[in-house]
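Assess this one:

_____
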Amino acid sequence: MRVRLVLAAGVLLASAAVAPLAHAGGADGLTARPALDGPVLNGPVLNGQPLGSRTADDLSVYGYGTVGDDSTVTLSGMYRCLDDSAGPVFVSSTLVQGNRSAGIGGTQAVCDGHLHEWVNTSVVKDPAYRPGAARVRATLMQLTAGETGLPAPGFLAAEDAPVELR
């Protein structure tokens, strides 16, 4: 049991760090959409469409992130997933600025068909991120039992969006 837990954690960490780079921005048939710039004020909207008009898993990235004095990076956006009965679903994010790239946290998703906000935070000191232009590659990923019984990632939605770090 302990070995499975360690392997599951390893798969999750590896997929969170690598998967957004391999699957974001259209590599698996998904297209990048404009990022939302902060909370939506005129009703629930995801990627420019009213929530009621979408019946699939979806994900967006806000057009900004923060970098604290202690090198804490915070990224956020919105997601919706419909079904987590096959395994847990996570929102992973990777921040890219210049030639630097780092996974920024991971949030377990609530898959109830409703719109939710995700917020991922991580301390990245070497190399530190600076205020200014960057990109976020976010992935909505589900871990399901593979043929060997070990968790395998399945990608539900991806977003590659420009952000302004503040």
Summary: The chain is about 15% helix and 45% strand. The longest helix spans residues 2-23. The helical segments are 2-23.
